[in-house]
Protein 1
Amino acid sequence: MHRIRRLASQEGYTLLECILQVMIFALFAQLFLLFFYWKGPIERQYTEHSATAWEMFAADFQAELTHLHSFEVYHNGEGVRFRTDRGLIAIEQRNHVIRKSIDGLGHVPFLTHVSSAQFSLQHPTLVVNVTMQDGTRKERNFTIGDYSQ
């Protein structure tokens, strides 16, 4: 019994154990740093998503405003209607989406996460003011194609 106690008291924290623990710590530290190195571009990508969605909306909306037969802003600027060769197109905000419908059928989302949208005609341009749900405000002028007033 005395011999077992003597062997147990001779064990201690060795240099080899210390080196092993330092190596494990260094490995976890590198993984921790890699995580933050990866996280930065991902966060920038998500914040730029809003700007990308706005630019896509602007490009699609401008493409719709060519070759018009008629054009009107209705409901005190809550939406626009215009007639093209494809039919009567309405673009308006419903819930948190700016959407497009053709002849009252279908509802194609143009821009999502919208808190409010205001359309105002200042011939020959259409001014669109949008407040997103995150509080950012966007404004864009769109050129309206030729039409008879």
Note: The two ends are 108 Å apart (CA to CA).
Protein 2
Amino acid sequence: MIVRESNNQIDTLAFQLSKEGKLCCGDSFYIKATDEYYICALADGLGSGERANDSSSAISTLVENNHAEDVDVLIDLCNKELKDKRGATVSILKIFFKTKQFTYSSVGNIRFILCTPSGSYIYPLPLLGYLSGKPQKYRTHTYDYEEGSKFIIHTDGLVLPAIKSLLKKGESVDDLSKQLEEYTLTRNDDLTYIVGQLF
């Protein structure tokens, strides 16, 4: 599955494959670009198959219905949503075009890295664990970004040995996606990535 979400401030492309032999993907995502901001939520349900999808899709639906909320509010709502479900690792990214800033929060092993045209990299460290409805601490950070910055956010089903050079070389989201193809051919897990470029 490939989904594109773009406007004159951002171009993003999401790609998803289920684990080999599974019809149902345990990862879910939601992406939306408005005039003021872009929001991306990525969730990896524990395990695989339908019960994993039940947890992860609850996250994408919740963020879709509440995308105007702040990231710290959303991550807490996500945790509450997973009470009595299997649980999921969750990352939420919100980019504000006017202030050229983004806010990010993550619990679990979903990875995010942003590369700026000036050559610096931002990769906030996630909290270990997963969301399951139990009382939980979160870490939410806000960073500045430059026009022309590129980013990738992905679940652990995608293993990238040289993520920094890949982001630096990629000319566009289509180019980045093409370069990622070789890493999607063999997979032992559900796999989702979202690549983006800011203008």
Note: The chain has one domain: 2-198.
